[in-house]
Hints:
Layout (H helix, E strand, L loop, with lengths): L8 E7 L8 E11 L2 E11 L8 E4 L11 E12 L3 E7 L2 H21 L13
Amino acid sequence: xxxxxxxxxxxxxxxxxxxxxxxxxxxxxxxxxxxxxxxxxxxxxxxxxxxxxxxxxxxxxxxxxxxxxxxxxxxxxxxxxxxxxxxxxxxxxxxxxxxxxxxxxxxxxxxxxxxxxxxxxxxxxxxx
Length: 128
């Protein structure tokens, strides 16, 4: 039976898309499973460097979320990844943190839809 994740979980995953061919382990924010493919999950990247992007939200480390330093969830780096790339659950966002990021995701989704109406039926961000 597959591990069950909930929206707001911080997962540690292995990414192999680097130019040098190496795999890198990094945290991501879990949103949901792919309704059409149980082997894929929707996640947003979490990065250690602030870029001051519109779709970026600061996450402070806590014993609950498993982060060890200040990080930034980037909604514009949301993508489906293979469930098999998950190494472990680091923790979960608290309700306040998740509500802030969820609001950002909803705003991003609305802008995505308005800027790409031809892609509306394939919108991976239509999750709430």
